[in-house]
Amino acid sequence: MVSAQGRIESKLFLRHGEQQLLSLIIPFAMLIVLAKVPILDGPEPLREAVPVIFAIAAMSSGFTGQAIALAFDRRYGALKRTGASGVSAGTIIVGKAIAVITMVLIQVVVLGATALILGWRPDALGTLAAVITLAIGVAAFSSLGLLMGGTLSSEVVLALANLIWVVLSGLVGWVLVSQGLADAGFANLIPSVALASGLTLAFEGTLPWVQLLILVVWLVIASVAAVKWFRFAS
Predict the structure, then answer these.
(1) Half-sphere exposure of 107 toward its Cβ, with a 13 Å CA cutoff?
(2) DSSP at 232
(3) Residue 199 in domain
(4) What pLDDT does 129 receive?
(5) Domain for residue 88, yes or no?
(6) 29-44 burial, b if ≥16 CB within 10 A, otherwise e?
């Protein structure tokens, strides 16, 4: 049942045009621009750009796409009908998690391959640390998406999720330009900055303990809140 629910959720996620725009097309375009246009001052722009792109892509699929899809499922009664058919709440949530994981895997393959073609060369051992960091970051943003999509109305979520995505992405860009993500300092308390900063350090071969801890805290807080306030109908 979990496998079937995961396949259904993944297909719905991949067929949604707006989610693909935020999750794949915009990050792909940003990667090309940052690689080809002299926006970043460093001699290796991809070294700074790739972690940012991965963070924004993960935030798009884990938070924004998840929140919007869930909110509209609640609005149209899809969750209630699915639950009435015998599918448990846990199975529905796991199915949505599988959809996010599927999207993230596609993002990693497409964006990672593109970056490698453009000349990006990450540290071999650092890649493993980056995978761990990305996984925790996706879990944290997915929990935030479940919290928002499972508590607010679809109209509010549609506006607020996109606005938050713009703000969080803009904050990552501001930290990158103003001080560098490797030295983000207190800005790491912002989840998008923590993920981008953690990926930056990880790809350089350093395990980002501080950023991982911050992301875990966000994950726990959002998960507890989602469990407490989640509603299956608007």
Answers:
(1) 34
(2) S
(3) yes
(4) 93
(5) yes
(6) ebbeebbeeeebeeee
Type of residue at 93: I
Domain around 195: 2-229
Domains identified in the chain, total number: 1
Outline where 60-88 has alpha helix (H). Answer: 66-75, 78-84
Residue 234 domain-assigned (yes or no) = no
| Residue type for position 118 | L
106 found inside a domain: yes
Share of the chain above pLDDT 90, in %: 52
Tokens of 82: 């699915």
The pTM of this model reads: 0.90
Note the Cα 43 to chain centre separation in Å.
Answer: 28
Contact 64, 161 (CB under 8 A): yes
Report the largest interatomic distance among the alpha carbons of the chain, rounded to a whole angstrom.
58
HSE-CB at 72 with a 13 A cutoff on CA atoms is: 11
The pLDDT of residue 131? 94
Q: What CA–CA distance (Å, rounded) separates 232 from 102? A: 23
In which residue are the tokens 């199975």 written? 91
Per-residue confidence (pLDDT) for residue 136, from 0 to 100? 95
Least Cα distance to 59 among 92, 14, 11, 104 occurs for: 104
Return the H-helix or E-strand segment holding 222.
helix 209-229
Mean pLDDT of all residues belonging to the chain:
87
Q: How far apart are CA 196 and CA 134, in angstroms?
A: 9
Residue 132 pLDDT greater than 70, yes or no: yes
Distance CA(66)–CA(76), nearest Å, equals 16
